[in-house]
Amino acid sequence: MASVVLVGLMGAGKTTIGQLLAQKTQLDLIDLDQKIVADAGKRIPDIFEEVGEIGFRQLETQALRESLAQNVILSTGGGVVTQAVNRMLLKNCAVPVVYLQADASVLYRRVCGDNNRPIAKNLNLQGFQDLAQKRADFYEEVSDLTIKTDDTTPDMVTAQIFSVYNFGEMNQLLS
């Protein structure tokens, strides 16, 4: 089973924090979006174009199930919480789910112009703020811990996660 799961809107730092946690715990990192790309053999924009968001979300649920069964650091995609089945999987997993949260305007600046994010590429700031507001309750629903990433460095966020969860003990229990 995963040792920690990171959730949050795109741009919150899930991949970066996941990489740092993986290095410090000596566990592998699964970035859910990268897993979907590898499994499908296509870029995310191509998946969206071919099967739409619904088809992408089905691939995401399958990848989430597989990833939660492994002893890894798991960085999810920003929209993983939009599906009730995924929220159930996250709420029922036996490891901490950490919500990396930041102000929508900060996140928008971080992802603006990234054409590899099909949901965000057509949104202006107001649309992005609406998306953040719509998903916020879902992130809160599945998370055990919320960490603000607006004005913190990735190292500070990683240290905060380590201060709450003793990964050394956790990994010994999972072995």
Automatic annotation (TrEMBL):
Sequence positions that bind Mg(2+): T15
Gene3D superfamilies listed in its UniProt record: P-loop containing nucleotide triphosphate hydrolases
Cofactor stoichiometry and binding remark: Binds 1 Mg(2+) ion per subunit.
Record: residues binding ATP: G11, A12, G13, K14, T15, T16, R117
Pathway field: Metabolic intermediate biosynthesis; chorismate biosynthesis; chorismate from D-erythrose 4-phosphate and phosphoenolpyruvate: step 5/7
Function: Catalyzes the specific phosphorylation of the 3-hydroxyl group of shikimic acid using ATP as a cosubstrate.
Entry similarity comment: Belongs to the shikimate kinase family.
Name of this chain's protein: Shikimate kinase
Species this chain originates from: Agrilactobacillus yilanensis
